[in-house]
Amino acid sequence: MNKPLIMVVEDDAAVRNLITTTLETHEYRFQEAATGETAILEVATHNPDVILLDLGLPDMDGIEVIQKIRTWAKTPIIVISARSEDIDKIEALDAGADDYLTKPFSVEELLARLRVTFRRLNDMKSDMVQSSVFQNGDLKIDYAAGCAFMKNTELHLTPIEYKLLCLLSQNVGKVLTHTYITKEIWGSAWDNDVASLRVFMATLRKKIEENPSEPKYIQTHVGVGYRMLRV
């Protein structure tokens, strides 16, 4: 079976060489692009499994690249950027990125992010086979029945809590921004109502986490959003 194909979009030759050398060492296949225009063309032509994308490209901003790719492809996109402000992360994630790695980064962290992404892809393929049931550790969601269980005991969730749990479970390993979650759960009327979201997330955690102060299922990305971890 062929190793996954990774598209590396980075105009800095030194950084690009670091990434591609790392990928080659770990026997990943890869292709390179130094501009946004080339990246879009290569993605459309070769359909990579994952895209590693720098935002500061010479011909167009990486956010625009994400937006263009998202018009036809759901390929996981991991942003690798020197932009470290929360607003930059939120903008990239809202545009359709799946993860965000800030420069400078360690090779180990990059490989870990890739492993998480590939696990999520494999889980999605598995879930398609058994799309009515989601299992993650002791957590089970029966989408068809509209029920959730922890250690085979049914959870008594409010409608909002259940919708939040389903949304997170359908995006395991992916950071979901506050704006994305509120739009998906409540619609535009609740857009940016982060305080209310935190309240519902806190009550949900009390029902699924053994220790809500040290959650293992739902991870908080401060100032950005939430991510369900694969347990």
From TrEMBL:
Annotated GO biological process? positive regulation of DNA-templated transcription
Its cellular-component GO annotations read: cytosol; protein-DNA complex
> What Gene3D superfamilies would the database entry show?
3.40.50.2300, 6.10.250.690, Winged helix-like DNA-binding domain superfamily/Winged helix DNA-binding domain
Q: Name one GO molecular function term.
A: cis-regulatory region sequence-specific DNA binding
Provide the OmpR/PhoB-type domain boundaries. 131-230
- Keywords annotated in UniProt: Cytoplasm, DNA-binding, Phosphoprotein, Transcription, Transcription regulation, Two-component regulatory system
Task: Give me the positions annotated for DNA binding.
Answer: 131-230
| Cell compartments where the protein resides | Cytoplasm
What range(s) does the Response regulatory domain occupy? 5-118
SUPFAM superfamilies recorded for this chain? CheY-like
Q: Which residues carry this modification: 4-aspartylphosphate?
A: 54
Q: What does this protein do?
A: May play the central regulatory role in sporulation. It may be an element of the effector pathway responsible for the activation of sporulation genes in response to nutritional stress. Spo0A may act in concert with spo0H (a sigma factor) to control the expression of some genes that are critical to the sporulation process.
Report the PANTHER family cross-referenced here: KDP OPERON TRANSCRIPTIONAL REGULATORY PROTEIN KDPE, REGULATOR OF RPOS
The identity of this protein, by name, is: Stage 0 sporulation protein A homolog
